[in-house]
Amino acid sequence: MSVTIHLAQQPEADALLGRSPLAALTGMLLDQQIPMEWAFTGPYTIAQRLDADDLDAHRIAAADPEEFAALLSEKPAVHRYPGSMAKRVQQLCQYLVEHYDGDAEAVWRDAPSGRELLKRLNDLPGFGRQKAQIFLALLGKQFGVTPDGWREAAGAYGEPGFRSVADITGPESLVKVRATKQEAKQAAKKAGEAGG
Q: Are 165 and 171 contacting, i.e. CB atoms less than 8 angstroms apart?
């Protein structure tokens, strides 16, 4: 697997995301409560701090939790909540080791359908339904992972448009996705005010 990705908006970090299934999964895991570029730069930062050119699920799963949390907490921190996210990254890697022998790509490599792939993603620690649907859309739109029914399983994120990270292919699409998210937030706020 090696594709051109523009989620981190930083060449080295994006190159890692494009060639490393575990880095892509980890970036998606980190993508909450911080800017998307910061989240998707996280896997590269972690790899650098581990003095490695890729993430290794076995190594991360086996790492001392306090040391791994300290690694993510170094300045600049990998996430706004580096301690709790270090725990989540380790839980993800432990799950991958236990269920997929540490091979992140195995989550989707032989998925017979979009529904089954969504279930597999939803089973990952730290992946709720929305995150699983967004990552499924990312796999389909940018990584060429398109089992039967993937668009339907991804819901609205599988449709054309600028709804999520799955639709970001460069700086211009990033601006469009941010605008769409802002509009959705404002609409939800107005709906809340009208209903209250």
A: no
pTM recorded for the entire structure? 0.92
User: Is residue 72 very low, low, confident or very high in pLDDT (cuts 50, 70, 90)?
Assistant: very high
* Two structure tokens written together for 168: 């970001």
CA-to-CA dists, residue 55 to 44, 47, 50, 93, 144, angstroms: 8, 6, 8, 10, 22
What is the C-alpha separation between 124 and 84, in angstroms, rounded? 16
Report d(CA 183, CA 185) in Å as an integer. 5
C-alpha to C-alpha distance for 108 and 31, rounded to whole angstroms: 20
Residue type, 113: S
Q: Which phi and psi (to 5°) does residue 45 adopt?
A: -60, -45
Helix orientation angle between 129-142 and 114-123, rounded to the nearest 10 degrees: 130
